[in-house]
Amino acid sequence: MCQLLGMNCNVPTDICFSFEGFSARGGKTDDHSDGWGIAFFEGKGCRMFIDAKSSVSSPLAEMVRRYPIHSTHVIAHIRKATQGEIALENCHPFRRELWGQYWVFAHNGDLPNFSPVGMHFYQAVGNTDSEKAFCLMLETLRESFPFGKPSLKELYAVLKEITDKLDSIGSFNYLLSNGEDFFAHCSTQLYYIVRQAPFAAAHLIDEDVTVDFRELTTPSDRVAVIATSPLTDNEVWTPIAPGELLLFQDGLPRKLENN
What we know:
- 43% of the residues are buried.
- The chain is globular and about 50 Å long.
- The protein is an alpha+beta fold.
- It contains 4 helices and 15 strands.
- Helix 1 (16-24) packs antiparallel against helix 2.
- The chain has one domain: 4-Layer Sandwich (Glutamine Phosphoribosylpyrophosphate, subunit 1, domain 1), CATH 3.60.20.
- The chain is 19% helix and 34% strand.
- The two termini are 34 Å apart.
- The model has no long low-confidence stretch (mean pLDDT 94).
């Protein structure tokens, strides 16, 4: 299976520390070595880097580890192929336009024998179940709201419906963002942590690296990090319940179905 990494913040923040540990799992501390990718939202723009090489051997990944790109919405992925060959077009995250916004998606799991029909607008470029699922999600949203982006509550309701249908086919952990809203769905395993004042030091599990966030933040900063498994060994990570779809805004998780 693949692994996911996401970040949602109330102020633009770099993901260098988390990506340092996460990328080590792409062939050094774990065997997710069939490609990687990362997307950063910056205003209406979206900066993406993908590579079919492992994240421990990719020069692009080394650049990301050292380049403090600041963003409030970040999605990253390291791949262990289950469907689709090792190729650039099969690397996550995937990006498409909907309602004049970029949407970015990354998936961890497996949807056996998944082949959506009746697709009119979105088509997969590669041959992964993940990209096909993303296209179906956006096709469903587009058909449900043909006149433009709906309210967040309406959007969430349709997204939850299609997510539940896909989740019934197989395992469907994913991260999805349009640069304004950040969604995280747990099918089998997904964790998050919210870092806010009072900040402390954090130590990576996969690398012997420690960062003292008190030296890098202001008291008003808040950062949520979402990952397939915890990235640090001296912090408390919260598991997302299987079947739960969380919305993250300004570094905090929200549940909309009860609102």
